[in-house]
Amino acid sequence: MAYDLQLSHIGKVYANGTPAVIDFDLDVEKGEFIAFVGPSGCGKSTTLRMIAGFESITSGDLLIAGRRVNDLPPEMRPTSMIFQNYALFPHMTVRQNVMFGLEVKKLAVAEARRKVERILDKLGLTEVAEVRPTRLSGGQRQRIALARSLVIEPDILLLDEPLGALDANLRKSIQNELKLLQRELGITFVFVTHAQSEALALSDRIVVMNGGKVEQISPPRELYTRPQSIFVARFIGSNTLISGQVRQVGGAGTMIETPFGILQAEAPPHAIAHGTGASIVLPAEAIHVLPGRMPEAEIRAIYGANVIPCTINRLQLVGHILQIGMTLPNGEAVSLEGHADKYRDTLSADSPAFVAWHPADATLIAQ
User: Fold this and answer.
1) Which of 157, 177, 288, 351 has the most CB atoms within 10 Å of its CB?
2) Predicted model pTM
């Protein structure tokens, strides 16, 4: 298969010997929307800058459309990059900003003008084409940056926290526009963000990085529901982790001895041995909270072994979402959210309850 972008054992070590990116492998198909997420300093922006050519590569190979581009300068690569601060020229009008890249490429004037007018129209910027960016809103400046990057018709668009400076409502609106635009143009997008919600909403696949290494590469739903490491389980979403040791494998499933008794999980896709330390990872959406007045035997008839008594200590309604704070028997605090209708008139603060879940909704990760 021909890929738009390939990173093969890519590494970056700074002059002082500090590794920034370690043995990074990724194959990106044409038209994919890839998001990089991870804590600050994990190497995601460094990786993006290596793809763009703004950062040198210490080891490995970087291929774009099958061509090795390790030593190719940024202006010679079929990529375009949008920075968080947009890097617009304040002394130029919107039209001049968008035209700039085509002038650098020395495109014929008539053709350049046609391309500029087409992209201005597509992004709703025609009416402000003669205005300078400093007089426009954050959303309009973001569109200018997009127009300037897209007008040169790159094979790959690189975006480094491009929505970070926008307020929440505008950010959501631009997210929707960005995804629709990417689908329409069919251009490969590689997107760095600190916002998990953006990555989960926009991307086809998400790369989770930690300490310069790739922890997991998965589609959003798989990443959210089936983390492959303890780091990903703690970093993505709102998960509760219950540690224990594997006591039975096969038959009725995998049984784990925990501080709350024997709990059940589906066997993971990889082999896990008896006696192995493991954690049950429970997404907040998988946990059901049941009032303490319900007979425990009735609850276990539905959920099997996966029933733990708890105490509800906080209920807070935020719009149609009920936030529930609970304490488990070992003193651990657990918080989750659910639709208010699901729990209407069934739960009360400072009262006993049960948390329960179906084995198939949890993920077992070896420690």
Assistant:
1) 157
2) 0.87
